[in-house]
Amino acid sequence: MRPLVRLAAAALTAIPLLVQPLFSGAAEAATLRWGAQRDIGSLDPDSFGDTFTLAFLNHIYEGLVRYDATLKVEPALATSWERVSPAVWRFHLRAGVKFHDGATLTADDVVASLKRATDDTSPLKGNLSSFKSARAIDPLTVDVELTGPYPLLLNDLTNIFIFSKPWLVANRTEMATDVGKGIEGYATGHTNGTGPFILESRQPDQKTIMNVNPNWWDKPKHNVTRIEFSPITSDATRLAGLMSEQIDYTNAVPLQTVSRLEGAAGLKILAARELRTVFYALNFAERLQDGSPNPLRDVRVRQALDQAIDIEAIRKSIMRGYSRNTGALVDPVIPGYTDAQEPRLPLDIEGAKKRLAAAGYPAGFAVSLVCASDGYVNEEQICQATAAMWAKIGVKVNMTIGPRAQITQKRVAGAFDITPLGWANEPAIDAYSILLQVIHSKTQSAGVFNWGTWGGGEIDSLIDASANELDQPKRLGQMNKALMLAKEQHLFLPLHQQPMIWAMRDTVADVVQLPDNKARHWLTRMK
After folding, report:
1. Are 281 and 232 found together in one domain?
2. Are both 302 and 339 inside the same structural domain?
3. pLDDT tens track for 468-493
4. What is the CATH classification number for the domain harbouring 373?
5. Any residues with CB less than 8 A from the CB of 328 and at least 6 apart, and which?
């Protein structure tokens, strides 16, 4: 059995790519039975900026560009591109690409897709915040105009998928649906992409089946002809399915089961650290959910909450030593990070009590904590442990725990006082992602995930300036300063970078595991 790859706790100096070499020998085509912790939110890739859903749908839909196995941007539906002016990019499309319904890819499809993803009503608009307009020059050439010079367009486009315009029009689904608001449409349950797999059927919360696309434009690097995707929310049931050979692969292995799985015959384990940083987001509304004045608006209160978290206890007992404690909002490999962002306030219960007393809450107060039972790694246990820690300083936690779909609607609606939030800075792999979409105050294209009315002032100005700064050292300095201001103001309470652990039976020859924690089964080979 291949040994477990253990993760060093020290900050990495480069993006840690755990890439398994592709199986090179001949192999018969096979079905990959994929058992996941949860279902995808929708079949519409524009319906919510959820990394897991977008990664799954990338098997069906594709963007103009994509990340390769080293997380470098490479051509996909566009073969080349160039700037024709500081704010206009020209993309040359790949000839002969077919959608799953047989229609040929054209520039009109790209224009319609970019418009759909960036519409004011689109939950994905923050993923392409610099977009102004798109224009077809000829059937295979598209000009994309931005609001100004912008250094991360290609990174952003890796997560913007291309639809067939005639299909959108015929099915009256030109507008994006919205998972967070419960808005559905034809694209919620139907697909028509250009990608390596074609949807056969979908039963939400039960099974989604995809078959290989024989007309895919790319040279296949896999021998998978069928993917049977089953959301299995019960960890015990999912792992039992793996052990009993009912599923071949899962990208959701509970930390507490790793040691047992390591000794199981016929299994392989892959473990690494994800780019995702998990932190507590605080609601800065004038009043708490119970209607009382909001103490979270006082920085001394936020510092007290931070100082009462025993992060090392969480790392050891809940995360089994696999997480990396941090005081920063981004992973060390994300551009915009500096070591100055890293230090945490030391654990100090008495000091935290004194901060609360100085803020006018010597007896503490009560807050709501809203957590998902199937969200971030061990999210429910982290919330329970934190509630017990905050109780030591007189802060009573009224906890709501539920399925991710239910909790997402509460978060989007701002129906929380405190809630966990995780951010991997995808697809940009740059701190501008969290700065724009989470930390920036809510505007037309910014603050899409600003659920607690934080941000504003100098932080917004620094984020806005970095958006159009092509001088990389200057841009990094602006992002670092914005992140440092958020840190100094304790707008959020950082916890850790979470681990990712996958497991597969020996029926799977090899998969590619990257720190963005996205499955790429067009690179998977079965024995």
Report:
1. no
2. yes
3. 898 999 999 999 999 999 999 999 99
4. 3.10.105.10
5. 277, 337, 341, 342, 483, 487, 494
